[in-house]
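Data availability (excerpt). All sequences and predicted token strings are deposited with the supplementary files. A representative entry, MFS transporter, is shown inline so that the format can be inspected without opening the archive.
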Amino acid sequence: MVQHLQVDPSASQVGLPSDAPGLPWRGVLRHVGFRRVWLGAMGSSIGTWMEGVGVQWLMAEQTSSTMMLGALAVAQLGPMLIFGLPAGLLVDWVDRRKMLLITQVAMMAIAALLAVAHAFGWATPPVLIGLGFVNGIAMAFNTPAWQTLSPRLVPREELPQAIALMAMQFNLARVAGPALAGVLMAKWGATLLFTLNALSFVGVMWAVHSTAPAPPASTGAHKPWREVGEALRFVREHVGARQVMLGLLLLSMLAAPLQRMLPLFVSEVYHAEEATYGVMLSAVGAGAVLGGLTLGRLPSWYPRHHIIPLALLMSGASMTLYCALTEPAWAAACLLVSGFFWIWAFSSLMTSVQLLTPDVMRGRVLSLFNMAMFGAMPVGSVLSALLGDWLAVKLGGGPGLAVQLGVGVFTLILLLAGAVLLIWRTPEIDDLKPGDRGHARRPGLWAGITAAGHRPG
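Structure token line:
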């Protein structure tokens, strides 16, 4: 289940991060509804990571193919491209809580089917891809429903902390889930992982059901194409929203292949087993948790239009180094650093788009961003696999070299793109306008890193 807390319906515009002063984490968790959803989401996220480990390991074990892992990514995430916009429109038209409960039940049923399939020996690559596609359809409707329902749970001034905390639960689960999955799968097999994931939906469904109904944001006659056009115009014409879209595309397309191909790094580069795969995923999660903790401690004057490109640059650098290493311990350290800066980038991107988007078109705009994010991931995975296979053939290498080269080229591009965006920044990401303090920018890498132009006098 993909779930990240977004902003409340009243939040359409803010300035720099100082508009939302820091609050202690326990302050956000004092809200009963948010606390229930956060705990339920934690359990479900652990189940999701456990299932992900099982599915990707089975595919890698059965095929030893970067292309098959890429095909799995297309099946799981591709439906967002097909159903993303209809889902966004529907979220604006219906009770969002009901829609979320329906999608959660659907994903629970799919998880149960996967457990049955593996128990009876039917979990072949075509079955894994087929169930992944069906789950992807449910996810396409679940994601915008989650994003627009959750903001009702906390006051506006606590939203940055709530967003970061919800992202942290997902990454705490990334630490616990893969580590548990590696041990459990090695001892009892993948059926147990899939069963536990199906059961993990119970808690989050109870938490969501305990919240108040969420009436539609859009009333009156619905004109789908006109409403979609309004959302597209908003993203196209708002400089900040357009730049956030670019950052999300870069992060999704260029960083996603590493996680998708991680089973092949473990089996073909390190020649290790499931437990090492779990450790590698946990390293990414641990880094993301540390990143979430430190992100809230950055100076209030340090703006998101500096944080985002800096995080893209550092993520790309650590991932590129990872691809060059063959020693698992050093590689895990690189993954920890990449997770640290990945959460900086992702949280800042999602906070920016939410704070820039009017509520009347929130579902539609979020769907556009979801389509970009989830659509770019499988595209990046497939292109990375094709590039790696081509380079490995040219150099006379095998699957290990293919995955190192294919992923490494993509992460190097992410590093370079982050550097360019850090030199030539976009203040509109923080909704700064010409004449506002901090809007005037001085191109330069050091100026981008230090954000000296925003430092209080």
